[in-house]
Amino acid sequence: DAKTTQPPSMDCAEGRAANLPCNHSTISGNEYVYWYRQIHSQGPQYIIHGLKNNETNEMASLIITEDRKSSTLILPHATLRDTAVYYCIVRVVMNYGGSQGNLIFGKGTKLSVKP
Amino acid sequence: KAGVTQTPRYLIKTRGQQVTLSCSPISGHRSVSWYQQTPGQGLQFLFEYFSETQRNKGNFPGRFSGRQFSNSRSEMNVSTLELGDSALYLCASSIGTPGNTIYFGEGSWLTVV
After folding, report:
1. How far apart are CA B48 and CA B33, in angstroms?
2. I need a labelling partner for A85 at 20 to 30 A (CA). Which of A7, A8, B41, B85 fits?
3. Helix, strand, or coil here: A23?
4. Which residue of B43, B59, B108 is the best one to mutate when testing the A interface, meaning the one whose CB has the most A CBs within 10 A?
5. Per the CB < 8 Å rule, is A106 touching B42?
6. What kind and span of H or E run contains B6?
């Protein structure tokens, strides 16, 4: 079972920031928080990941609470192309090579960006 | 840099037949995983290969199998197809070292009739 809880759906106005929450209250010390999104009929697209510090890249920002029990993905200026299902995943990062580990997907949040 | 490439993108098979799907990982990536996505069950992990060896396996029947070649390319096979095997099959690749990111292909849509 997925170790994360996300709201099933959210709306966001185009041009505004989209803040997608994720609860992972049972996260372990060696587990990272990963975010992927899936636009209809396409493969999941990697967005960002983090362990305990906030992270930012060209797509989004990831804010992880100090106790690591929840996080928020921020799309700073949402566009219609950001309409997708967003998955928050906790993933054990192996300490050895030879395995990427499997991702356990939940149902994600369906984000609808509206004009 | 080319992404994860999956072929074919779409295919239709009849119950009882078998199917083989192919995946070419990103250049330099040695780990390949397969996932099945259906409306009812969502995205589920099938298996993972690294250096031609299966490293992890999900909870799927033995009709689902895979292999990896020396060039890291991978194939998955489903034998004795059932209607419930209709799904999007996704391949994902990564370097295979700790902390690396997993990248997905666009998937192969399989319809069983």
Report:
1. 4
2. B85
3. strand
4. B43
5. yes
6. strand B5-7
Query: How many Cα neighbours within 13 Å face the side chain of A78?
Result: 22
Please give the single-letter amino acid code of residue A94.
M
Which of the residues A89, A92, A102 would you substitute to probe the B interface, choosing the one with the greatest number of B C-beta atoms within 10 Å? A102
* Per-residue tens of pLDDT for chain A, all 115 residues: 668 999 999 999 999 999 999 999 988 888 889 999 999 879 999 999 998 889 999 999 999 999 999 999 999 999 999 999 999 998 876 655 566 677 888 899 999 999 9
Exposure string over A85-105, b if 16+ CB within 10 A, otherwise e: bbbbbbbeebeeeebbbbbbb
Write the DSSP symbol of residue A74: E
- Distance CA(B17)–CA(A73), nearest Å, equals 43
The C-alpha atoms of residue B42 and residue B93 are separated, in whole angstroms, by 19
